[in-house]
Amino acid sequence: MGRIATIDYELCQPNKCGIPCIRFCPINKTRPYKAIELSSEKQGKPVIYEDKCIACGICVKKCPFKAIHIINIPTEMEEKIVHRYGVNAFSLYGLPIPVENEVVGILGPNGAGKTTAMRILSGFLIPNFGILDKEPSKEYVLEKFRGTQLYDYFNKLYSGKIKVVYKIQYIEAIQAYVKQGIVYDLLKKFDERGILKEVIDYLNLGNMLSKNVKTLSGGELQKLAIAIALERDANTYIFDEPTAFLDVRERINLMKALTELRPRNCYIFIVDHDIMFLDYVADLIVITYGVPSVFGYFSKTYSAKAGIDYYLKGFLPVENMRIREEQITFKLHDTRDDVIAIGEGDVIFWSQLFKKLGDFELLVEEGKVKKGEVIGIIGPNATGKTTFIRILAGEIEPDKGYVTSPSLKISYKPQYLSRDSVNCTIVKECLKDVNKAALEESNWLYIEVIKRLGVDRILEKEIEKLSGGELQKFFVAKTLIKEADVYLLDEPSSHIDVEDQLSVARAIKRIARMRKTPVFVIDHNILLIDYAVDRLMVFRGEPGVKGFGMSPTVVSRAFNNFLKEVDITVRRDPETGRPRINKPGSYLDREQKTSGQYFYTI
Protein backbone atom coordinates (compact mmCIF):
# COMPACT_ATOMS: atom_id res chain seq x y z
CA MET A 1 0.00 0.00 0.00
CA GLY A 2 1.34 3.39 -1.02
CA ARG A 3 0.11 6.86 -0.31
CA ILE A 4 -0.24 10.28 -1.85
CA ALA A 5 0.30 13.38 0.27
CA THR A 6 -0.50 16.72 -1.33
CA ILE A 7 -0.39 20.27 -0.04
CA ASP A 8 -2.15 23.13 -1.78
CA TYR A 9 0.56 25.76 -1.31
CA GLU A 10 -1.80 28.53 -2.39
CA LEU A 11 -3.91 27.78 0.69
CA CYS A 12 -1.08 26.91 3.08
CA GLN A 13 -0.21 29.84 5.39
CA PRO A 14 2.18 28.68 8.17
CA ASN A 15 2.68 32.27 9.38
CA LYS A 16 -1.02 32.42 10.34
CA CYS A 17 -1.84 28.96 11.70
CA GLY A 18 1.00 28.08 14.09
CA ILE A 19 1.84 24.96 11.98
CA PRO A 20 -0.37 22.42 13.85
CA CYS A 21 0.40 19.89 11.09
CA ILE A 22 3.99 19.73 12.34
CA ARG A 23 3.32 20.17 16.08
CA PHE A 24 0.72 17.38 16.30
CA CYS A 25 2.38 14.85 13.96
CA PRO A 26 2.87 11.60 15.99
CA ILE A 27 5.90 10.59 13.89
CA ASN A 28 7.61 13.90 14.63
CA LYS A 29 6.94 13.35 18.36
CA THR A 30 7.95 9.72 18.71
CA ARG A 31 10.54 8.93 16.01
CA PRO A 32 14.08 10.17 15.38
CA TYR A 33 13.05 11.34 11.90
CA LYS A 34 10.43 13.72 10.58
CA ALA A 35 7.30 12.93 8.55
CA ILE A 36 6.53 16.62 7.96
CA GLU A 37 8.67 19.72 8.34
CA LEU A 38 9.16 23.22 6.98
CA SER A 39 11.24 23.42 3.84
CA SER A 40 13.31 26.30 2.48
CA GLU A 41 12.68 24.93 -1.02
CA LYS A 42 8.94 25.60 -0.48
CA GLN A 43 9.45 29.17 0.81
CA GLY A 44 9.22 28.09 4.44
CA LYS A 45 6.10 25.96 3.96
CA PRO A 46 5.82 22.31 5.04
CA VAL A 47 6.77 19.21 3.08
CA ILE A 48 5.34 15.76 3.83
CA TYR A 49 7.63 12.75 3.33
CA GLU A 50 5.29 10.09 2.00
CA ASP A 51 7.61 7.19 2.89
CA LYS A 52 7.65 8.31 6.55
CA CYS A 53 3.98 9.33 6.85
CA ILE A 54 1.60 6.76 8.40
CA ALA A 55 -1.56 8.48 7.07
CA CYS A 56 -3.03 9.00 10.55
CA GLY A 57 -4.96 12.02 9.23
CA ILE A 58 -4.15 14.30 12.17
CA CYS A 59 -2.46 16.95 10.03
CA VAL A 60 -5.41 16.87 7.60
CA LYS A 61 -7.87 17.57 10.43
CA LYS A 62 -5.68 20.13 12.17
CA CYS A 63 -4.97 22.27 9.07
CA PRO A 64 -7.33 25.28 9.38
CA PHE A 65 -7.01 26.07 5.67
CA LYS A 66 -7.84 22.53 4.43
CA ALA A 67 -4.63 22.54 2.41
CA ILE A 68 -3.51 18.95 3.15
CA HIS A 69 -4.76 15.71 1.61
CA ILE A 70 -3.35 12.26 2.40
CA ILE A 71 -4.76 9.22 0.60
CA ASN A 72 -3.72 5.57 0.68
CA ILE A 73 -3.56 3.91 -2.72
CA PRO A 74 -3.06 0.24 -3.74
CA THR A 75 0.46 -0.75 -4.79
CA GLU A 76 -0.73 -1.84 -8.25
CA MET A 77 -2.17 1.66 -8.79
CA GLU A 78 1.03 3.31 -7.61
CA GLU A 79 2.92 1.40 -10.31
CA LYS A 80 0.77 3.07 -13.00
CA ILE A 81 1.85 6.63 -12.23
CA VAL A 82 2.42 8.60 -15.44
CA HIS A 83 3.18 12.10 -14.23
CA ARG A 84 3.64 14.09 -11.05
CA TYR A 85 3.97 17.84 -10.90
CA GLY A 86 6.31 17.88 -7.91
CA VAL A 87 6.71 16.96 -4.25
CA ASN A 88 3.30 16.92 -2.53
CA ALA A 89 1.68 17.86 -5.86
CA PHE A 90 -0.91 16.34 -8.20
CA SER A 91 -0.30 12.83 -9.58
CA LEU A 92 -1.75 11.31 -12.75
CA TYR A 93 -2.24 7.56 -13.14
CA GLY A 94 -2.79 5.97 -16.53
CA LEU A 95 -3.72 7.54 -19.87
CA PRO A 96 -6.64 7.11 -22.27
CA ILE A 97 -5.72 4.66 -25.04
CA PRO A 98 -5.76 6.19 -28.55
CA VAL A 99 -7.96 4.16 -30.92
CA GLU A 100 -7.57 4.85 -34.63
CA ASN A 101 -10.73 5.96 -36.46
CA GLU A 102 -12.72 6.15 -33.21
CA VAL A 103 -13.74 9.21 -31.20
CA VAL A 104 -12.65 8.76 -27.59
CA GLY A 105 -14.66 10.91 -25.15
CA ILE A 106 -13.07 11.86 -21.83
CA LEU A 107 -15.51 12.35 -18.95
CA GLY A 108 -14.72 13.26 -15.36
CA PRO A 109 -14.42 16.00 -12.73
CA ASN A 110 -12.30 19.12 -13.02
CA GLY A 111 -8.86 18.85 -11.46
CA ALA A 112 -8.55 15.11 -12.16
CA GLY A 113 -5.94 15.35 -14.92
CA LYS A 114 -7.91 15.39 -18.19
CA THR A 115 -6.05 18.37 -19.62
CA THR A 116 -2.72 17.02 -18.30
CA ALA A 117 -3.36 13.78 -20.18
CA MET A 118 -4.21 15.68 -23.37
CA ARG A 119 -0.99 17.68 -23.10
CA ILE A 120 0.95 14.43 -22.78
CA LEU A 121 -0.82 12.83 -25.74
CA SER A 122 -0.19 15.96 -27.81
CA GLY A 123 3.52 15.94 -27.00
CA PHE A 124 3.45 19.31 -25.23
CA LEU A 125 4.28 17.66 -21.90
CA ILE A 126 6.75 14.79 -21.46
CA PRO A 127 5.63 12.60 -18.54
CA ASN A 128 8.09 11.97 -15.69
CA PHE A 129 6.45 8.81 -14.20
CA GLY A 130 6.81 10.29 -10.73
CA ILE A 131 10.60 10.67 -10.97
CA LEU A 132 11.27 14.20 -9.80
CA ASP A 133 15.06 14.26 -9.50
CA LYS A 134 15.85 14.21 -13.24
CA GLU A 135 14.52 15.67 -16.46
CA PRO A 136 11.95 13.51 -18.25
CA SER A 137 13.03 12.18 -21.64
CA LYS A 138 11.24 10.79 -24.67
CA GLU A 139 13.51 7.75 -24.63
CA TYR A 140 12.44 6.88 -21.10
CA VAL A 141 8.76 7.34 -22.05
CA LEU A 142 9.15 4.80 -24.87
CA GLU A 143 10.97 2.43 -22.54
CA LYS A 144 8.18 2.64 -19.94
CA PHE A 145 5.43 2.09 -22.52
CA ARG A 146 7.22 -0.71 -24.40
CA GLY A 147 4.91 -3.70 -24.76
CA THR A 148 1.74 -1.64 -24.17
CA GLN A 149 -0.87 -0.19 -26.50
CA LEU A 150 0.60 3.27 -25.93
CA TYR A 151 4.07 2.42 -27.26
CA ASP A 152 3.17 2.55 -30.94
CA TYR A 153 1.39 5.90 -30.52
CA PHE A 154 4.23 7.62 -28.64
CA ASN A 155 6.86 6.12 -30.94
CA LYS A 156 5.10 7.73 -33.92
CA LEU A 157 4.49 10.97 -31.98
CA TYR A 158 8.11 11.42 -30.91
CA SER A 159 9.52 10.44 -34.32
CA GLY A 160 7.43 13.13 -36.01
CA LYS A 161 5.10 10.74 -37.84
CA ILE A 162 2.06 12.07 -35.97
CA LYS A 163 0.91 15.66 -36.38
CA VAL A 164 -1.33 16.91 -33.56
CA VAL A 165 -4.00 19.62 -33.67
CA TYR A 166 -5.04 20.71 -30.17
CA LYS A 167 -8.11 22.90 -29.60
CA ILE A 168 -7.29 24.29 -26.17
CA GLN A 169 -9.69 24.52 -23.23
CA TYR A 170 -9.66 28.27 -22.59
CA ILE A 171 -10.36 29.79 -25.99
CA GLU A 172 -10.04 33.31 -24.54
CA ALA A 173 -6.29 32.81 -25.00
CA ILE A 174 -6.75 32.81 -28.79
CA GLN A 175 -7.07 36.60 -28.82
CA ALA A 176 -3.70 36.86 -27.05
CA TYR A 177 -2.03 35.11 -30.01
CA VAL A 178 -4.24 36.30 -32.89
CA LYS A 179 -4.86 39.94 -32.02
CA GLN A 180 -5.88 41.01 -35.51
CA GLY A 181 -7.31 39.37 -38.60
CA ILE A 182 -10.55 38.80 -40.44
CA VAL A 183 -12.29 35.50 -39.71
CA TYR A 184 -12.68 34.47 -43.36
CA ASP A 185 -8.99 35.14 -44.09
CA LEU A 186 -7.95 32.96 -41.13
CA LEU A 187 -10.28 30.14 -42.19
CA LYS A 188 -8.91 30.29 -45.75
CA LYS A 189 -5.31 30.35 -44.48
CA PHE A 190 -5.65 27.17 -42.41
CA ASP A 191 -7.85 25.17 -44.81
CA GLU A 192 -5.39 22.31 -45.37
CA ARG A 193 -8.15 19.73 -46.01
CA GLY A 194 -10.16 21.77 -48.51
CA ILE A 195 -13.34 21.83 -46.44
CA LEU A 196 -13.74 25.60 -46.03
CA LYS A 197 -17.29 25.73 -47.42
CA GLU A 198 -18.45 22.68 -45.42
CA VAL A 199 -17.03 24.07 -42.17
CA ILE A 200 -18.76 27.42 -42.71
CA ASP A 201 -22.07 25.68 -43.46
CA TYR A 202 -22.02 23.10 -40.64
CA LEU A 203 -20.89 25.53 -37.94
CA ASN A 204 -23.08 28.38 -39.27
CA LEU A 205 -20.19 30.85 -39.52
CA GLY A 206 -21.73 33.03 -42.26
CA ASN A 207 -22.60 36.00 -40.06
CA MET A 208 -19.09 36.26 -38.56
CA LEU A 209 -16.88 35.84 -41.65
CA SER A 210 -16.26 39.58 -42.08
CA LYS A 211 -15.59 40.21 -38.37
CA ASN A 212 -12.20 40.96 -36.85
CA VAL A 213 -10.97 38.36 -34.35
CA LYS A 214 -10.59 40.97 -31.61
CA THR A 215 -14.34 41.71 -31.73
CA LEU A 216 -15.55 38.10 -31.45
CA SER A 217 -17.66 36.91 -28.52
CA GLY A 218 -16.78 33.80 -26.52
CA GLY A 219 -19.10 31.61 -28.59
CA GLU A 220 -17.73 32.99 -31.87
CA LEU A 221 -14.14 32.41 -30.72
CA GLN A 222 -15.05 28.84 -29.83
CA LYS A 223 -16.55 28.19 -33.27
CA LEU A 224 -13.51 29.73 -34.97
CA ALA A 225 -11.12 27.53 -32.96
CA ILE A 226 -13.13 24.39 -33.78
CA ALA A 227 -13.37 25.31 -37.46
CA ILE A 228 -9.61 25.85 -37.79
CA ALA A 229 -8.91 22.58 -35.95
CA LEU A 230 -11.17 20.66 -38.36
CA GLU A 231 -9.53 22.33 -41.37
CA ARG A 232 -6.03 21.25 -40.37
CA ASP A 233 -4.57 18.07 -41.83
CA ALA A 234 -3.33 16.00 -38.90
CA ASN A 235 -3.19 12.51 -37.39
CA THR A 236 -4.44 13.39 -33.90
CA TYR A 237 -7.21 15.86 -33.06
CA ILE A 238 -7.84 16.96 -29.49
CA PHE A 239 -10.89 19.07 -28.61
CA ASP A 240 -10.80 20.29 -25.00
CA GLU A 241 -14.26 21.52 -23.87
CA PRO A 242 -15.56 22.43 -27.36
CA THR A 243 -19.12 23.15 -26.14
CA ALA A 244 -18.17 26.01 -23.79
CA PHE A 245 -20.00 29.25 -24.72
CA LEU A 246 -22.06 27.48 -27.41
CA ASP A 247 -25.86 27.53 -27.25
CA VAL A 248 -28.01 24.43 -27.76
CA ARG A 249 -28.43 24.97 -31.50
CA GLU A 250 -24.68 25.53 -31.94
CA ARG A 251 -23.91 22.37 -29.96
CA ILE A 252 -26.17 20.41 -32.28
CA ASN A 253 -24.39 21.94 -35.29
CA LEU A 254 -21.07 20.96 -33.70
CA MET A 255 -22.28 17.39 -33.20
CA LYS A 256 -23.14 17.15 -36.88
CA ALA A 257 -19.84 18.77 -37.94
CA LEU A 258 -17.72 16.40 -35.85
CA THR A 259 -19.70 13.44 -37.16
CA GLU A 260 -19.60 14.39 -40.85
CA LEU A 261 -16.35 16.36 -41.21
CA ARG A 262 -14.02 14.50 -38.90
CA PRO A 263 -11.01 13.02 -40.73
CA ARG A 264 -10.80 9.25 -41.13
CA ASN A 265 -7.94 6.99 -40.03
CA CYS A 266 -6.85 9.32 -37.26
CA TYR A 267 -7.04 9.62 -33.47
CA ILE A 268 -9.67 11.93 -31.95
CA PHE A 269 -10.08 12.87 -28.29
CA ILE A 270 -12.92 15.02 -26.98
CA VAL A 271 -12.94 16.31 -23.40
CA ASP A 272 -16.29 17.77 -22.34
CA HIS A 273 -18.81 18.00 -19.49
CA ASP A 274 -21.93 17.86 -21.69
CA ILE A 275 -23.04 14.23 -21.38
CA MET A 276 -25.63 14.50 -24.17
CA PHE A 277 -22.96 15.88 -26.51
CA LEU A 278 -20.44 13.13 -25.68
CA ASP A 279 -23.14 10.47 -25.94
CA TYR A 280 -23.81 11.62 -29.51
CA VAL A 281 -20.30 12.19 -30.90
CA ALA A 282 -18.14 9.67 -29.02
CA ASP A 283 -17.65 6.04 -30.00
CA LEU A 284 -15.82 5.20 -26.78
CA ILE A 285 -15.70 6.72 -23.30
CA VAL A 286 -12.83 6.86 -20.81
CA ILE A 287 -13.73 8.01 -17.30
CA THR A 288 -11.40 10.03 -15.10
CA TYR A 289 -11.83 9.66 -11.36
CA GLY A 290 -9.91 10.41 -8.21
CA VAL A 291 -9.66 13.38 -5.86
CA PRO A 292 -9.52 16.75 -7.66
CA SER A 293 -6.14 18.46 -7.34
CA VAL A 294 -4.76 15.39 -5.52
CA PHE A 295 -4.72 12.55 -8.05
CA GLY A 296 -6.51 11.40 -11.19
CA TYR A 297 -6.89 7.92 -12.66
CA PHE A 298 -8.06 6.91 -16.14
CA SER A 299 -10.47 4.00 -16.42
CA LYS A 300 -10.55 1.27 -19.03
CA THR A 301 -12.23 2.10 -22.33
CA TYR A 302 -16.02 1.58 -22.46
CA SER A 303 -18.60 1.94 -25.21
CA ALA A 304 -20.15 5.42 -25.14
CA LYS A 305 -23.52 4.38 -23.67
CA ALA A 306 -22.07 1.97 -21.11
CA GLY A 307 -19.38 4.42 -20.01
CA ILE A 308 -21.82 7.27 -19.43
CA ASP A 309 -24.27 4.97 -17.62
CA TYR A 310 -21.50 3.66 -15.35
CA TYR A 311 -20.38 7.23 -14.69
CA LEU A 312 -23.90 8.26 -13.64
CA LYS A 313 -24.28 5.14 -11.49
CA GLY A 314 -20.94 5.90 -9.85
CA PHE A 315 -19.52 2.39 -10.26
CA LEU A 316 -17.04 1.05 -12.82
CA PRO A 317 -17.50 -2.74 -13.13
CA VAL A 318 -14.23 -3.58 -14.93
CA GLU A 319 -12.17 -1.76 -12.28
CA ASN A 320 -14.58 -2.82 -9.50
CA MET A 321 -14.34 0.78 -8.37
CA ARG A 322 -16.96 3.04 -6.78
CA ILE A 323 -16.26 6.60 -7.91
CA ARG A 324 -19.26 8.28 -6.27
CA GLU A 325 -21.38 7.53 -3.23
CA GLU A 326 -24.73 8.30 -4.82
CA GLN A 327 -26.23 7.51 -8.21
CA ILE A 328 -27.28 10.37 -10.48
CA THR A 329 -30.86 9.85 -11.66
CA PHE A 330 -33.34 12.00 -13.55
CA LYS A 331 -36.89 12.49 -12.39
CA LEU A 332 -39.72 13.32 -14.80
CA HIS A 333 -41.06 16.86 -14.37
CA ASP A 334 -44.65 15.68 -14.25
CA THR A 335 -43.94 13.37 -11.29
CA ARG A 336 -41.92 15.76 -9.13
CA ASP A 337 -43.35 16.01 -5.65
CA ASP A 338 -41.72 19.32 -4.68
CA VAL A 339 -43.29 21.57 -7.31
CA ILE A 340 -45.63 24.25 -6.02
CA ALA A 341 -48.85 24.57 -8.04
CA ILE A 342 -48.50 27.20 -10.73
CA GLY A 343 -50.36 30.40 -9.91
CA GLU A 344 -49.92 30.34 -6.12
CA GLY A 345 -48.07 33.32 -4.71
CA ASP A 346 -47.03 35.12 -7.89
CA VAL A 347 -43.90 37.23 -7.28
CA ILE A 348 -43.02 38.66 -10.69
CA PHE A 349 -45.25 39.74 -13.54
CA TRP A 350 -44.27 41.31 -16.83
CA SER A 351 -46.42 42.59 -19.64
CA GLN A 352 -45.47 42.12 -23.27
CA LEU A 353 -42.01 43.69 -23.52
CA PHE A 354 -40.24 45.38 -26.40
CA LYS A 355 -36.63 46.57 -26.40
CA LYS A 356 -34.43 47.92 -29.19
CA LEU A 357 -30.66 47.90 -28.66
CA GLY A 358 -28.86 49.29 -31.71
CA ASP A 359 -29.95 47.12 -34.64
CA PHE A 360 -31.32 44.37 -32.37
CA GLU A 361 -35.02 44.13 -31.44
CA LEU A 362 -36.46 41.96 -28.67
CA LEU A 363 -40.12 41.06 -28.09
CA VAL A 364 -41.12 38.97 -25.05
CA GLU A 365 -44.58 37.55 -24.31
CA GLU A 366 -46.18 38.48 -21.02
CA GLY A 367 -45.65 36.09 -18.14
CA LYS A 368 -45.59 35.57 -14.41
CA VAL A 369 -43.54 33.57 -11.93
CA LYS A 370 -44.58 32.25 -8.55
CA LYS A 371 -42.83 31.77 -5.21
CA GLY A 372 -40.23 29.04 -5.05
CA GLU A 373 -40.22 28.37 -8.81
CA VAL A 374 -37.17 27.72 -10.99
CA ILE A 375 -37.56 29.09 -14.53
CA GLY A 376 -35.17 27.84 -17.21
CA ILE A 377 -34.35 29.94 -20.28
CA ILE A 378 -32.95 28.38 -23.46
CA GLY A 379 -32.42 29.46 -27.05
CA PRO A 380 -29.74 30.56 -29.52
CA ASN A 381 -27.09 33.08 -28.52
CA ALA A 382 -27.82 36.73 -29.38
CA THR A 383 -31.62 36.32 -29.35
CA GLY A 384 -32.21 38.40 -26.21
CA LYS A 385 -32.01 35.98 -23.24
CA THR A 386 -29.47 38.07 -21.34
CA THR A 387 -31.24 41.29 -22.37
CA PHE A 388 -34.46 39.93 -20.83
CA ILE A 389 -32.60 39.07 -17.61
CA ARG A 390 -31.11 42.56 -17.51
CA ILE A 391 -34.60 44.05 -17.88
CA LEU A 392 -35.80 41.90 -14.95
CA ALA A 393 -32.74 42.98 -12.95
CA GLY A 394 -33.52 46.65 -13.63
CA GLU A 395 -30.20 47.24 -15.44
CA ILE A 396 -32.05 48.44 -18.54
CA GLU A 397 -35.63 49.57 -19.09
CA PRO A 398 -37.95 48.21 -21.78
CA ASP A 399 -39.07 50.60 -24.52
CA LYS A 400 -42.59 49.22 -24.20
CA GLY A 401 -44.19 47.30 -21.33
CA TYR A 402 -43.26 46.94 -17.69
CA VAL A 403 -41.96 44.47 -15.11
CA THR A 404 -42.61 44.32 -11.38
CA SER A 405 -39.14 43.00 -10.45
CA PRO A 406 -37.23 46.34 -10.37
CA SER A 407 -39.06 47.07 -7.14
CA LEU A 408 -37.66 43.85 -5.71
CA LYS A 409 -34.17 43.04 -4.44
CA ILE A 410 -32.25 41.22 -7.18
CA SER A 411 -29.25 38.90 -6.94
CA TYR A 412 -27.66 38.54 -10.39
CA LYS A 413 -24.80 36.39 -11.75
CA PRO A 414 -23.78 37.65 -15.18
CA GLN A 415 -22.71 35.50 -18.12
CA TYR A 416 -19.15 36.80 -18.36
CA LEU A 417 -17.29 36.74 -15.06
CA SER A 418 -14.85 39.53 -14.26
CA ARG A 419 -12.37 39.21 -11.40
CA ASP A 420 -12.07 43.00 -11.46
CA SER A 421 -15.75 43.32 -10.48
CA VAL A 422 -14.97 41.84 -7.04
CA ASN A 423 -13.81 44.40 -4.48
CA CYS A 424 -11.72 42.01 -2.39
CA THR A 425 -8.87 39.54 -2.86
CA ILE A 426 -9.78 36.42 -0.83
CA VAL A 427 -12.86 34.24 -1.49
CA LYS A 428 -13.82 34.16 2.20
CA GLU A 429 -13.71 37.96 2.50
CA CYS A 430 -15.90 38.40 -0.57
CA LEU A 431 -18.53 35.97 0.66
CA LYS A 432 -18.51 37.54 4.15
CA ASP A 433 -19.26 40.92 2.60
CA VAL A 434 -22.36 39.37 0.97
CA ASN A 435 -23.67 37.30 3.90
CA LYS A 436 -21.47 36.69 6.94
CA ALA A 437 -23.89 34.18 8.48
CA ALA A 438 -23.64 31.92 5.41
CA LEU A 439 -20.05 31.04 6.38
CA GLU A 440 -21.07 29.61 9.76
CA GLU A 441 -20.88 25.80 9.45
CA SER A 442 -24.19 25.33 11.27
CA ASN A 443 -26.02 27.66 8.88
CA TRP A 444 -28.21 25.95 6.25
CA LEU A 445 -26.76 28.19 3.55
CA TYR A 446 -23.28 26.90 4.35
CA ILE A 447 -24.50 23.31 3.99
CA GLU A 448 -26.75 23.80 0.95
CA VAL A 449 -24.58 26.24 -1.02
CA ILE A 450 -21.00 26.70 0.26
CA LYS A 451 -20.32 23.06 1.07
CA ARG A 452 -22.51 21.55 -1.68
CA LEU A 453 -20.60 23.53 -4.34
CA GLY A 454 -17.22 22.73 -2.78
CA VAL A 455 -16.55 26.42 -2.16
CA ASP A 456 -15.51 25.53 1.40
CA ARG A 457 -12.29 24.11 -0.10
CA ILE A 458 -11.32 27.41 -1.75
CA LEU A 459 -12.31 29.90 0.97
CA GLU A 460 -8.71 30.94 1.60
CA LYS A 461 -7.77 31.23 -2.09
CA GLU A 462 -7.15 34.51 -3.86
CA ILE A 463 -9.73 35.43 -6.50
CA GLU A 464 -6.93 35.98 -9.02
CA LYS A 465 -5.71 32.39 -8.61
CA LEU A 466 -9.06 30.62 -9.06
CA SER A 467 -9.45 28.30 -12.04
CA GLY A 468 -12.32 28.82 -14.48
CA GLY A 469 -14.48 26.23 -12.71
CA GLU A 470 -13.66 27.57 -9.24
CA LEU A 471 -14.45 31.13 -10.35
CA GLN A 472 -17.83 29.99 -11.70
CA LYS A 473 -18.74 28.22 -8.44
CA PHE A 474 -17.61 31.23 -6.41
CA PHE A 475 -19.89 33.57 -8.38
CA VAL A 476 -22.82 31.13 -8.16
CA ALA A 477 -22.35 30.82 -4.38
CA LYS A 478 -21.97 34.59 -4.02
CA THR A 479 -25.26 35.07 -5.90
CA LEU A 480 -27.23 32.41 -4.02
CA ILE A 481 -26.22 33.34 -0.44
CA LYS A 482 -27.29 36.95 -0.93
CA GLU A 483 -30.62 37.93 0.63
CA ALA A 484 -32.87 38.71 -2.32
CA ASP A 485 -36.40 38.49 -3.68
CA VAL A 486 -35.36 37.16 -7.10
CA TYR A 487 -32.27 35.25 -8.28
CA LEU A 488 -30.98 35.51 -11.86
CA LEU A 489 -28.17 33.23 -13.07
CA ASP A 490 -26.72 33.50 -16.56
CA GLU A 491 -24.91 30.31 -17.70
CA PRO A 492 -23.97 28.87 -14.27
CA SER A 493 -22.73 25.58 -15.80
CA SER A 494 -19.84 27.05 -17.85
CA HIS A 495 -16.45 25.42 -17.13
CA ILE A 496 -17.76 23.12 -14.38
CA ASP A 497 -17.99 19.33 -14.47
CA VAL A 498 -21.08 17.13 -14.34
CA GLU A 499 -21.01 16.62 -10.56
CA ASP A 500 -20.74 20.37 -10.00
CA GLN A 501 -23.45 21.07 -12.58
CA LEU A 502 -25.84 18.85 -10.64
CA SER A 503 -24.66 20.38 -7.34
CA VAL A 504 -25.46 23.82 -8.78
CA ALA A 505 -28.88 22.53 -9.91
CA ARG A 506 -29.62 21.17 -6.40
CA ALA A 507 -28.45 24.39 -4.74
CA ILE A 508 -30.63 26.48 -7.06
CA LYS A 509 -33.71 24.36 -6.30
CA ARG A 510 -32.97 24.42 -2.57
CA ILE A 511 -32.68 28.21 -2.51
CA ALA A 512 -35.93 28.56 -4.46
CA ARG A 513 -37.83 26.21 -2.16
CA MET A 514 -36.38 27.30 1.21
CA ARG A 515 -36.59 31.03 0.56
CA LYS A 516 -39.76 30.78 -1.53
CA THR A 517 -38.16 33.00 -4.14
CA PRO A 518 -38.14 32.59 -7.93
CA VAL A 519 -34.89 31.72 -9.70
CA PHE A 520 -34.23 32.33 -13.41
CA VAL A 521 -31.52 30.19 -15.04
CA ILE A 522 -30.12 30.77 -18.53
CA ASP A 523 -28.10 27.77 -19.69
CA HIS A 524 -27.26 25.77 -22.79
CA ASN A 525 -26.77 22.46 -21.01
CA ILE A 526 -30.00 20.52 -21.60
CA LEU A 527 -29.04 18.04 -18.89
CA LEU A 528 -28.86 20.76 -16.21
CA ILE A 529 -32.04 22.46 -17.46
CA ASP A 530 -33.91 19.14 -17.53
CA TYR A 531 -32.68 18.34 -14.02
CA ALA A 532 -33.29 21.70 -12.35
CA VAL A 533 -36.20 23.70 -13.69
CA ASP A 534 -39.96 23.70 -13.12
CA ARG A 535 -40.99 25.66 -16.21
CA LEU A 536 -39.16 26.79 -19.30
CA MET A 537 -38.94 29.88 -21.51
CA VAL A 538 -37.79 29.42 -25.11
CA PHE A 539 -36.18 32.23 -27.10
CA ARG A 540 -35.95 32.15 -30.88
CA GLY A 541 -35.22 34.55 -33.71
CA GLU A 542 -32.38 35.75 -35.92
CA PRO A 543 -29.20 36.12 -33.80
CA GLY A 544 -28.08 39.72 -33.48
CA VAL A 545 -31.09 41.01 -35.43
CA LYS A 546 -34.31 40.09 -33.61
CA GLY A 547 -35.40 37.84 -30.79
CA PHE A 548 -38.69 36.55 -29.46
CA GLY A 549 -39.17 35.19 -25.94
CA MET A 550 -42.10 32.90 -25.16
CA SER A 551 -43.98 32.90 -21.87
CA PRO A 552 -42.90 30.27 -19.27
CA THR A 553 -44.58 26.92 -19.95
CA VAL A 554 -44.38 23.20 -19.11
CA VAL A 555 -40.85 21.87 -19.66
CA SER A 556 -41.78 18.94 -21.91
CA ARG A 557 -43.95 21.14 -24.13
CA ALA A 558 -41.29 23.88 -24.39
CA PHE A 559 -38.53 21.35 -25.15
CA ASN A 560 -40.74 19.69 -27.74
CA ASN A 561 -41.31 22.97 -29.60
CA PHE A 562 -37.64 23.92 -29.38
CA LEU A 563 -36.34 20.54 -30.59
CA LYS A 564 -38.82 20.59 -33.48
CA GLU A 565 -37.26 23.87 -34.65
CA VAL A 566 -33.72 22.45 -34.61
CA ASP A 567 -34.98 19.17 -36.16
CA ILE A 568 -33.66 16.67 -33.60
CA THR A 569 -35.45 14.21 -31.33
CA VAL A 570 -34.55 13.28 -27.77
CA ARG A 571 -35.51 10.15 -25.86
CA ARG A 572 -35.03 9.17 -22.24
CA ASP A 573 -32.74 6.29 -21.36
CA PRO A 574 -34.93 3.58 -19.75
CA GLU A 575 -32.32 2.81 -17.04
CA THR A 576 -31.07 6.23 -15.92
CA GLY A 577 -33.81 8.54 -17.25
CA ARG A 578 -31.14 10.75 -18.84
CA PRO A 579 -32.07 12.50 -22.10
CA ARG A 580 -30.32 11.12 -25.21
CA ILE A 581 -30.26 12.54 -28.74
CA ASN A 582 -31.42 10.17 -31.47
CA LYS A 583 -29.25 9.73 -34.55
CA PRO A 584 -30.88 11.50 -37.53
CA GLY A 585 -32.83 9.05 -39.67
CA SER A 586 -32.77 6.30 -37.04
CA TYR A 587 -35.90 4.28 -36.29
CA LEU A 588 -36.57 6.18 -33.05
CA ASP A 589 -35.90 9.53 -34.73
CA ARG A 590 -38.43 8.78 -37.51
CA GLU A 591 -40.98 7.33 -35.08
CA GLN A 592 -40.87 10.33 -32.72
CA LYS A 593 -41.08 12.84 -35.57
CA THR A 594 -44.09 11.01 -36.99
CA SER A 595 -45.86 11.15 -33.61
CA GLY A 596 -44.77 14.75 -32.95
CA GLN A 597 -42.91 13.70 -29.79
CA TYR A 598 -39.56 15.41 -30.30
CA PHE A 599 -38.94 15.28 -26.54
CA TYR A 600 -39.93 11.81 -25.41
CA THR A 601 -40.59 12.00 -21.68
CA ILE A 602 -41.46 8.38 -20.87
UniProtKB/TrEMBL annotation:
Q: What is this protein called?
A: Ribosome biogenesis/translation initiation ATPase RLI
Which taxonomic lineage does the organism of this UniProt entry have? Answer: Archaea, Thermoproteota, Thermoprotei, Desulfurococcales, Desulfurococcaceae
What InterPro entries does this protein's entry cite?
4Fe4S_Fe-S-bd (IPR017896), 4Fe4S_Fe_S_CS (IPR017900), AAA+_ATPase (IPR003593), ABC_transporter-like_ATP-bd (IPR003439), ABC_transporter-like_CS (IPR017871), P-loop_NTPase (IPR027417), RLI1 (IPR013283), RNaseL-inhib-like_metal-bd_dom (IPR007209)
**Record-level Gene Ontology MF annotations:** ATP binding; oxidoreductase activity
Q: Is S-adenosyl-L-methionine a UniProt keyword of this protein?
A: no
Q: Residue limits of the 4Fe-4S ferredoxin-type domain?
A: 3-35, 44-73
Cite a single Pfam family from the UniProt record: Fer4_RLI
Supply the SMART domains for this chain: AAA
- Per the database record, which ranges form the ABC transporter domain? 77-314, 342-566
Is Kinase set as a keyword in this record?
Answer: no
